[in-house]
Design brief:
alpha+beta, Alpha-Beta Plaits, three-stranded antiparallel sheet, two-stranded antiparallel sheet, 18% helix, Fe-S_cluster_ET, iron-sulfur, 3 iron, 4 sulfur cluster binding
Length: 103
């Protein structure tokens, strides 16, 4: 079983476009000035995932975020190969024709 989607709304970023309430009215409401408020605790039911994701992606100011977003695992083990020479790609007077710049 997968962990349910959780969202958070940063009301300080919200500019009142209202796309969130349009796409996911079960999770977002608009106050008297048109700014969004989160309904509930931010846990999204599986059947509402697409609507909430649409609201998240359509927010022009990115006021909605997914908590605990699934990220690709990154290998943090040190590499067994020696690092490349960082100076190998430097642009110098000796190779200026190769890089296509002149003074």
């Amino acid at each position: 079983m997968t962990e349910p989607m959780r969202i958070r709304l940063d009301r300080t970023v919200c500019d009142g476009f209202g796309f969130c309430a349009k796409h996911a009215p079960k999770y977002f409401s608009l106050d008297d000035w048109g700014y969004a408020s989160l309904i509930g605790d931010g846990v999204v039911a599986e059947e509402d995932h697409d609507a909430v994701m649409r609201a998240l992606l359509d927010c022009p100011v990115h006021a909605i975020m997914e908590i605990g977003e699934r990220r690709r695992a990154v290998d943090t083990r040190p590499s067994s190969t020696p690092p490349e020479d960082p100076a190998a790609d430097l642009k110098t007077e000796a190779n200026e024709a190769e890089w296509g710049f002149t003074r």
